[in-house]
Queue: 2 jobs
Job 1
Amino acid sequence: MAIKRALFNYVSVSRYSSTSLLKTGDKLKQTRIFSTQDLVDYSKVSFDANPLHLDPQYARDAGFSDILVPGMLVASFFPRIIATHFPGAVYASQTLNFRSPVYVKEEIVGEVEATNIRGSKDKYIAKFITRCYNNTGVVVLDGEAMAVLPTLCPAQP
């Protein structure tokens, strides 16, 4: 777990016991603090070199208090939350609404809430409301996601 925590810089929070099944209304959450190194790594992989994400002076000159975490990096929280609890899940779709800036070193809570679950042969199709909050409770990102789950029994992260 120490290696996983160091690699992903997050703490997982779940409301499940090992015997419960995912049902409508259930929420899965994780908390993360994005580091400057996360932004550099994301820039290398995505080829997104926007100076708002890498240059503190540029971000301040643009009216922000610090460099911004790329919205798509924040949104990557959602498939990770689902796959952590349901290994082998296939992320099928996501809508996103970017509501407020996310700053480096700011604690963010990612949450997915099951709104619809239906069986399909040996898999389950689940629809989720997705939200990220900053440490003051402001919604910084929201939307909806759909995933194909191999089971409704969540793994313990």
Job 2
Amino acid sequence: MTYRVCFVCTGNICRSPMAESVFRARVAEAGLEGLVEVDSAGTGGWHEGDGADPRTVTVLENGGYDGAHTARRFRPSWFSRLDLVIALDAGHLAALRRLAPTAQDAEKVRLLRSYDPAASGDLDVPDPYYGGMDGFEECLEMVEAASEGLLAVVRENVEGRAA
């Protein structure tokens, strides 16, 4: 049975596509392709059908990740097929929990940086959209740092299902 993870930010052109690409690479490195499905979406639909922000693509490709992406809006109906919904900041966390059809679905929503053992205090991945390239690079560092911890949790769940 496939384990499904969806990363969610505001418009699905900066943070969540970055997290999707990085985590997909971690899943492949771990040999979990075919067992884990990774995607992303935005809380709003302003950029539906657009590619990722060019700065996101540049930072991803410079880091050795895939920059291909098409933005879309998160739909509450997706909760039924998702195992984890990963919010990039506290605002997304609250919005997604409000959208959740059931309390069980709301429990699927987690903050990405909660999986980074070195993170403390503010667990938001700041929106780099209105800044320069340094914000996108910082975003990538935060996403990479949290991805290892998230992978450990996902691997444990996948192996638990197989047992």
